[in-house]
Design goal:
Radius of gyration: 24 Å
Oligomer: single chain
Strand content: under 5%
Structural class: mainly alpha
Number of strands: 0
């Protein structure tokens, strides 16, 4: 039962209704029941992996805390390491088991040895990449004495399995989410409507924009050897739009659903395509993952405390890990390392500029507002193009095809294809093509408005008829322009497959 289904909306409606009818002391019990029921709707076998992660993390955290209290740091570290090994090791085995065997066979072939393996029948439980990081962050925080472990196994299970965020985040921290889950909540009409607004916007992003852009992206990337120049560049831009609208849409649906229960999930996006540098981009894109990698990988490696060279190596390691987490294949590793290289290059360039400016010994030039605006626009444009280039390697099935597409973008440049109707023969009709363009402009307008106002709070202040006209308008947009029906795979969120 994915988010984009009538069964999910019915499930959510019943869950919310009963939640507020129950005595406040047992509301969290109902949340636990519906969360487990929701997860069971995907595949009964998946629950075993989730429960294994919950049991090892809950028990491990209690043991780590008690050992730390008794000043037995060595034993606590051993329990921590074992728990992380079980959870991250299981994720790595399920994700990379068959790929590793295939790679071993290819290496053996290079040595002249024939070595073949039958593919393993491995399950990939939905959401495991997300709840594994959630579990790892929790037990590390307990080890660092930043959290007191939850003694009630049922309550800890709710923290791990809370249904709006288990599919693809955001990746929660215990101190931020758990107290909300266990606290009683009274029904508030304003909060319910605010959550509904966010869900509507999530469905518009996913069904109207992302899934329509996906038609052109799939067509072009599926036949990449037939295209050059403008066509491949257009497909890459459509994919940049698709992946943002897809992932942001799902997270907004999750956050909106949680808000209907009076629970705030962490924000995961902050206008990432307005970033003025790659470092800024990662402060804005998938914020919960970026902060997780910073706190549990970058800082433990030494961060920027062990010299400049070590800092740059640490950045590359972090993005290597990010590439591994996102998917299987050299193209994901290259995508991650490319973003790491971007950051290292940007930091080096900034140091060169600072040193050059210091040698000139001239006072800093005061720029006019117009020049500052132009400079910022240039930085946004340049950063977006770097991100767009990297997304090509994220989307392709192999590293070789990624390099081929990049090379073909810069060859056989035929600008007249912008006007001769070629772009309307890539799986989308003319009106569907421009519908995606209008969707992109709508997302741009919403992002710009968010800089000035809280859109949902502003809508909540409208007179009742106008407010519900906005809600009905959003629903009508989904019904009229959304992609659904026969042949549509409503479960296929991009990040849900990682």
């Amino acid at each position: 039962m994915g988010f984009i289904s009538l069964s999910f909306l019915a499930f959510l409606g019943v869950a919310v209704l009963i939640y507020y009818l129950l005595p406040s002391k047992i509301q969290w019990v109902w949340l636990l029941i519906v969360s487990l029921l929701f997860y069971l709707t995907f595949d009964l076998r998946y629950i075993a992996f989730l429960l294994l992660s919950i049991a090892t993390t809950w028990g491990g955290a209690l043991a780590v805390y008690r050992l730390r209290e008794k000043q037995k740091s060595g034993a606590a570290k051993a329990i921590l390491s074992l728990t992380l090994l079980v959870n991250i090791g299981l994720l790595a085995f399920l994700k990379f088991g068959n790929y590793s065997l295939s790679l071993l066979g290819r290496i053996a072939a290079l040595a002249g040895v024939s070595l073949t393996f039958e593919p393993l029948s491995l399950l990939m439980p939905i959401g495991i990449s997300f709840y594994t990081l959630q579990a790892a962050g929790y037990i590390i925080d307990v080890y660092r004495r930043r959290e007191i472990p939850e003694k009630n196994p049922a309550k800890f299970t709710l923290f791990m399995a809370f249904f709006p965020q288990i599919l693809q985040g955001p990746i929660p921290r215990f101190g931020q989410l758990a107290p909300q889950l266990y606290a009683p909540h009274r029904f508030r009409y304003e909060t319910f409507c605010s959550g509904m607004q966010l869900m509507l916007w999530g469905y518009i992003q996913k069904m109207v924009i992302a899934d329509r852009a996906a038609v052109l992206v799939d067509y072009v990337y599926g036949n990449a050897e037939q295209f050059y120049g403008i066509t491949l560049l257009t497909a890459s831009l459509f994919y940049s739009l698709q992946i943002y609208a897809d992932f942001s849409g799902c997270v907004d649906i999750a956050r909106g659903a949680a808000e209907m229960f009076g629970i705030d999930l962490a924000k995961n996006f902050e206008r990432p395509y307005f970033a003025t540098s790659i470092q800024d981009f990662w402060r804005r894109w998938h914020i919960s993952l970026s902060s997780w990698l910073r706190d549990y990988v970058y800082i433990p490696l030494g961060g920027n405390r062990k010299g400049l060279a070590r800092k740059y190596v640490n950045i590359l390691i972090v993005f290597f890990v990010s590439g591994l987490w996102h998917g299987v294949g050299l193209h994901f590793l290259f995508w991650g390392l490319l973003h790491g290289a971007y950051q290292v290059a940007g930091a080096l360039w900034q140091r060169i500029r600072t040193a050059f400016a210091a040698r000139r010994k001239k006072p800093a030039q005061v720029l006019s507002p117009a020049r500052l605006c132009v400079r910022r626009a240039w930085k946004i444009f340049f950063t977006f193009n770097l991100v767009n280039l990297a997304w090509i390697f994220f989307r392709v099935p192999s590293l070789r095809q990624g390099f081929t597409i990049v090379e073909r973008i810069f060859t056989h440049w035929q600008p007249w294809q912008l006007f001769d109707g070629t772009l309307y023969q890539l799986g989308l009709s003319r009106h569907c093509f421009w519908m995606v363009g209008c969707g992109a402009l709508l997302m741009l307008a919403v992002s710009l408005l968010h800089r000035k106002i809280e859109i949902r709070k502003t809508i909540a202040q409208f007179p009742l008829p106008l407010r519900w006209a906005v809600y009905m308008g959003g629903l009508l947009i989904i019904l009229l322009f959304g992609v659904y029906g026969l042949g549509y795979n409503a479960e296929n969120f991009i990040y849900q497959t990682f």
